[in-house]
């Protein structure tokens, strides 16, 4: 179906010239933006945007969608990273395929309403017969562009690792399943709705050999690599004690830097590691709310951006956020840089660019992330006629004031949200399913 988004009050294009257009139309045809300009021909479905700010869809570069079933778990609410994980591992070990699919749909629906059109996911445990396709099925139902990564853990408690033995897999089985899901689902083409990545959970839950083999496999298959890195002080201490080096050096030695790699958190990167990431074009998924929630620290995003590191935003899993609102995440990212470095160190416009085009670049999607002719039609339309926008002087109020939910959302030219409601789902029923599963887990 073709659409005309008519007479937008402001379009924040995030194109190469960072153009901001007023009283302008956008034409969408076959999933692509085909024209931008005033008073385009109205020979298709028309959406009035005269009371709206229009942006590219936001991009979420880090999530564990399964964790929407374990929000606000009492024993995990106030713990640091390692203690938090040890509280949650036994609960996650009771998951199965239904839990994976339903929780993914809940997380993606929440993201969609917050303006997100594309999300990655990092699924690193497969209890009860769960498989990566459980989340893929869920994403197809919701309709978001999806980059699931085949995560893994292989060092259990009995080998000195953090996770219980029941949640770890044999390394040969992990690599075999990576090959299976890449061959079955990965789509390298322009406009792809689904791309698969390879993602051992973290340096403290898999071996050096698996990190190296995963990198070799990903390069052989032409897919991206993702993991957690340098998340907090415990993480750095573990790296120095176990590997005798900092996380950046460990990553570099094992092939984990490059344009096809992105790392979550990177709160503790030092200036040498920032330079390494910049000159190798390695990406970072910045997750400010999760970093605050777990007390991990403030990622040096200002220094990363100044050095030329690719940075996107991630809401991270709902056990450590506990909400999945990407516009809220953008605001938090801006505030954290300001509290650490000063009020002039991160503007609302810059953080909005990180949330859209920045994320698309981190995920290797040069076909997405901006409103420009020829790019994919992933578009968020924000109603600025409501209470939270009343009295606003500037479209940057989107980050500073609100709204926090979209009016309309297009993914690949398909309308996923209309007038604030998801078109692809029976949302009350999904919420009921999710709460039933949470109750079964012992919530
Ligand atoms: Zn994470």
Automatic annotation (TrEMBL):
Classification via Gene3D superfamilies: Metal-dependent hydrolases, Urease, subunit C, domain 1
Start and end residues of each Amidohydrolase-related domain: 53-415
InterPro entries linked: Amidohydro-rel, Metal-dep_hydrolase_composite, Metal_Hydrolase, MTA/SAH_deaminase
GO molecular function: deaminase activity; hydrolase activity, acting on carbon-nitrogen (but not peptide) bonds, in cyclic amidines; metal ion binding
The entry's keywords: Hydrolase, Metal-binding, Zinc
Superkingdom, natural source: Bacteria
CDD domains for this protein: ATZ_TRZ_like (cd01298)
Keyword Zinc belongs to the record: yes
Family of the protein in this entry: Belongs to the metallo-dependent hydrolases superfamily. ATZ/TRZ family.
The name this protein goes by in its record: Cytosine/adenosine deaminase
Source organism (scientific name): Aliiroseovarius sediminilitoris
